[in-house]
Amino acid sequence: MPIRQLSETMINQIAAGEVIERPASVVKELVENALDAGASRVEIVTVGGGLNLIRVSDDGSGIPEKELALAIARHCTSKLADDIHDIRSLGFRGEALPSIGSVARLSIRSRTTSSENAAEIGIDGGRVSAVRPAAANRGTTVEVRDLFFATPARLKFMKGERAESSAIGDVVKRIAIAFPAVRFTLAGPDRSTLELPATEDGPEGRLRRVAQVMGADFPDNAIAIDAMRDGVHLVGHVSVPSFTRANALQQYAYVNGRPVRDKLIAGAIRGAFADVLPRDRHAVTVLFLTLDPAIVDVNVHPAKADVRFRDPGLVRGLIVGAIREALANAGIRAATTGAAGMMAAFRPGAASYAHGGPANGHRSYEAAYRASGFSGFDPARSPQRPLDMGDGFGEDEQAAFDAGPLHSADARAGQNEAAETLLGTALGAARAQVHENYIVAQTRDSLVIVDQHAAHERLVYEALKNALHSRAVPSQMLLLPEIVDLSEEDAERLAIHSETLARFGLGIERFGPGAVAVRETPSMLGETNVQQLVRDLADEIADNDTVDTLKERLDKIAATMACHGSVRSGRLLKPEEMNALLRQMEATPGSGTCNHGRPTYIELKLADIERLFGRR
Q1: Are residues 275 and 163 in the same domain?
Q2: Is residue 212 part of a domain?
Q3: By C-alpha distance, which of 289, 168, 263, 180 is closest to 544?
Q4: Would 339 be classed as within a structural domain?
Q5: Are residue 105 and residue 69 in the same domain, yes or no?
Q6: Alpha-carbon Rg of the chain, whole angstroms?
Q7: Of 171, 196, 221, which closes a domain?
Q8: What letters, b where the CB count within 10 A reaches 16 and e where it falls short, cover 129-139?
Q9: Residue 345 lies in a domain
Q10: Which of 10, 238, 242, 614 has a beta carbon 3.0–4.6 Å from 599's, enabling a disulfide?
């Protein structure tokens, strides 16, 4: 077949295959156009999951009548000057409208602020109609009917109406978070309407918009993020570790106001929460990156959902460091949803809640346990020892928590002062231990229940990690060096990071072109697959310019040691031991969850307890 020039319609249909994947893609492009036009109100109406009708109306600046024909022409845009690296708008390629018009019936009706009349133009499967007068308020209304009628094969790949409507809703919510000062409404044929009233720009208004989209629970369980490094600014909110979801759909990321689904950002979020979340749970996050447009490429894919950073290591390091610092500075916080579940369980007729926990009966590792500084623990003491009123739970030991008679007024004043001080702490004063695993504590306005094994597991783990990363990791010399064949690029990347790897106990050096020799491995790893470890590290350095794979393996071993080295369920504790545990939890970052991501405590406010008993 001879080479020939494709028709304009076919070119647009090919472009539509990349830009317009489903009805949600159309909504995304049209809403972005409205926002680029300065709209303060955007209304979306859909029928048939967007396949029958999509109508997007805005009160933006509008399109002049003489430019309507250009608006639907390929590669025509008002958003890009001469520098492709200086992109400050959501759209810029000039492909969306002609692509939509090539596969659907498209009409655009618009009126500018300075014009007394509106004008309209249409495209029907690539055939353009003449511009004609119309009646309309200021702004633009775009209607898309019979999507993919010109390419019926694409219709076979569409999901059901409900799934397509859900995808449209997700797109609108994702965009709306970045523009809190804009009012959004989305209406469907089932009379269901999503309304997102305008708030105001700034952190507070943005958080209120996030609450509109993600629910009122998120602000109460969120930690603010604000960090800057080398001209890259990161702001937003992340959930406390005990407030999680089963998938990552509620992780929202924005680069210069543009919603993105970026693997580097998603990986950085996973890395930041690696120590505090189980593998099957995901944090809830809303993160905004602001940086010079010249150091980020948004022209990677026609859908503009992917970006490429000039310095990915910088961006990843900023996200991981900022989140971990925020979690550490936030102190100890429990998710409010834990108390809500507890309240529901107490109500008459509520379903019982099953709580899973680690198996009991493992022997404690005394050294690992003592590394946490919790010196009150005696590993020789039997966990099956029966309760003895003279062994830690008699009147003498409980005097500090009793309102009973004391020997003198001075003693009473001193102990009341001590008890009052404890009540003012985050986790309060220990009052009792129930079922040989749960510590019941009291603060001034709440009741706290602590899982002693989960809590101490976190304390031991943090102590082991600090010891592990405060000095070089012990290594073991290999009898014969292990030669790993790699590409020249991977070998060079590993050589550049050799000093960092040596700190973690992995000794490598170049061994000719395209190979490295491994002479030492971390002692903690024991017998390990050196070839696979080195290749994994090379892949990670290529993707993220980090060597976190090795660190994560060592941290996983530390977590296993902490699990076995912590106080077990069934271990009877003295009051001073319980209070010592509570104080260490308050001083330890991340102690709101154990190493496996389960909550270590639940707080129930006094007001909630009083409501249970009808006092409020």
Answers
A1: no
A2: yes
A3: 263
A4: no
A5: yes
A6: 30
A7: 196
A8: eebeebebebb
A9: no
A10: 242
**What CATH number corresponds to the domain at position 510?**
3.30.1370.100
For residue range 247-299, list pLDDT tens digits in order.
999 999 999 988 998 889 999 999 888 878 877 789 999 999 999 988 888 76
Q: Where are the beta strands (DSSP E) in 317-361?
A: none
**For 330-434, where are the alpha helices, taking DSSP H only?**
336-346, 366-370, 395-398, 409-423
Q: What is the pTM of this model?
A: 0.70
Give me the residues of the chain with pLDDT under 70, please: 12-18, 78-86, 88, 91-94, 190-191, 299-304, 334, 337-419, 544, 557, 560-561, 564-568
Name the nearest CA neighbour of 131 among 215, 65, 205, 200. 65
Q: Three-state SS for 276?
A: coil
Q: What is the count of structural domains for the chain?
A: 4
Q: Are 89 and 36 in contact (CB under 8 A)?
A: yes
* Token reading at 471: 């000095």
Q: What is the pLDDT of residues 377-405, one digit of tens each?
A: 443 343 333 333 333 433 443 343 333 34
**Residue 283 β-bridge partners:** 244
Residue 224 corresponds to which amino acid? Answer: A
Looking at the fold, whether 550 and 410 belong to one and the same domain comes out as no
DSSP 103-151: HSEEEEEEE-TT-SSEEEEEEETTEEPPPEEE---SEEEEEEESTTSSS
CA distance 83 to 85: 5
> Which residues form the domain of 262?
203-329
Residues 588 and 442 placed together within one structural domain of the fold: yes
Three-point CA angle 75, 288, 56, nearest 5° = 45
Residue 565 three-state SS: coil
Q: How far apart are CA 8 and CA 124, in angstroms?
A: 14
Q: Angle, to 10 degrees, between the axis of helix 312-329 and the axis of helix 263-272?
A: 30
- 348 in any annotated domain: no
User: Does one domain contain both 77 and 132?
Assistant: yes
Q: Environment class of residue 349 by beta-carbon count within 10 Å: exposed (0-12), middle (13-18) or buried (19+)? A: exposed
Task: Answer yes or no: do 245 and 382 share one domain.
Answer: no
Q: At 227, list the tokens.
A: 């960090």
What tens digit of pLDDT does each residue of 477-502 get?
998 999 999 999 999 988 988 888 88
